[in-house]
Fold each of these.
Amino acid sequence: MTAESKNIAHCPDCGAEVRLKKPPYVGQLITCRHCDSVLEVVNRFPLELHWAETAWDDDEGSNLNSGRNGRRRNGR
């Protein structure tokens, strides 16, 4: 196991491998290159990613679970 392999996780949305060049920190936001999901580092050892808890729209009462990554899609 190399030091680089510690910086590999899988996107919870598309399952793609996410590789980080530098050691991450808890709370760091990362964008999956395959599906554009915004992810947050929740654990360093082992590296674990979850969807970021970020609201993407300005609607009051918007639901973070309304779409992929909490984003509301237009017209829905």
Amino acid sequence: MSADWYFVRKRQFFRRPKCIGPVSEQHILGRIESGEIEPDTMLSSKLKTHGHWVEMRTIKPAMKHWQAHHSHVKC
């Protein structure tokens, strides 16, 4: 899987949500591992989601990666 991805960084205190990208798939996986991208984070890729914004939980490989690194968290 090699695609350019975009994601929405969640709202933080006094900050609005921000669209980040394009970033590589490896970059997305790293942010999933760190917990910055969670199952409800919105992601988009022209190649993988046909430009639609979807929750990370709907992308099976991403969700599998999240579960492998966050097995202690119930989603």
Amino acid sequence: MPWWTGLDLRVLRHVRAVLRRRGLELTLVERRPEEAETKRAAFAPLDAADGKGPGIAVFAPALSEPEVALVQLMLNEAALDVADALRERRPEERAAAASGRRTSYHGICGAAPTMQELYDLLDRIGPSDATVLIQGENGTGKELVSRAIHAASPRRDRKFVVTNCSAFNDNLLDSELFGHKRGAFTGAVADKPGLFEIADTGTFFLDEIGDMSPALQVKVLRVLQEGTFNRVGDTETRRVDVRIIAATNRDLAAMVAAGQFREDLYYRIHVLAVPLPALRERREDIPLLVEYFLSRHRRARPKRLAPECAAQLGAYAWPGNVRELENEVERLVVLAGDAPTIAADLLSPRIRQWSPPATEDTAEAANGSLPAAIEALERRMIGAAMKRHNGNKTRAAEDLKVSRRNLIRLVQKYQLE
């Protein structure tokens, strides 16, 4: 595997962006390019002792020597940061890279089997222009996934517009989405384009679409079906070309059955469904995520977790998912001050004092190891859910709040058919 597999560093992204504004493209290479010998390329090795080995290059035949020297300075800064990150990669990440598993995808971090399935699905979804529905609990990264889909799509160079449907009342959301004409209501002192117009030819991410009122659902359905809409208070029909990605943490199928969500809109946005796993379903990613969040503070305050602290983070249930973990890591970095090691007593009380619910199975398994206790709890809960729903995996998955694909994998793992 290339040495840069899974690499996602802020310094590297910043240097790449600066060079692109100059019309130059940064390249990660396995060995020093021959062009560097003739000043037609700038090159910074990852290892100062191996100037012929892997590094970062920019092929710039049209630049003067002073300009090449300036580019070289930026590459050296990026190479130092990359080399530090590679040295400090956790064993889990190095093993994932060596095995060919991806540890990241357009800013998404994770190497668990459920994440590999997600990456494969996004590979297929990205190049299409179809509507996507992302489903997952709060904090699982729905907006991050929507940005990854946009980044992998033909519309990547167009606008990516985001709105949260639960952040506005009905009237404000109507104006926010579709715009309004001057005088349409009190305070409408000028014509205003809506977000659908702003997102024209790009991607529009509608977060928490399950909180949208039935009246607005009709208007969104019209945009999806015909690509047309009217501003509030206007009779002129406008046309847009927008790819819609919707997201929700609610059970839209149950809402349809209860008459709370339009069935025709549900099937129109459910063209491609992307279920996101909760953090408790991919606990093996917790060390990787912790290291990723710690790396954001590495340049100012290098830190590592004490073994007891890491163990408690791995055992916790994480109801707030990745967002909760990110906030906890930031809190730990601040509280640790200048100390290089973060102790377990700095953890939030809810995490430090948390322990899994005691049951006969888990208590017996706990006498062995934490992974055995977790497996025992999973086996018991999945078996009970399958029994409650007479072997119906779809209903059992909804009951357990996991994806059907992940439930099938666990049923096979524990031989619970």
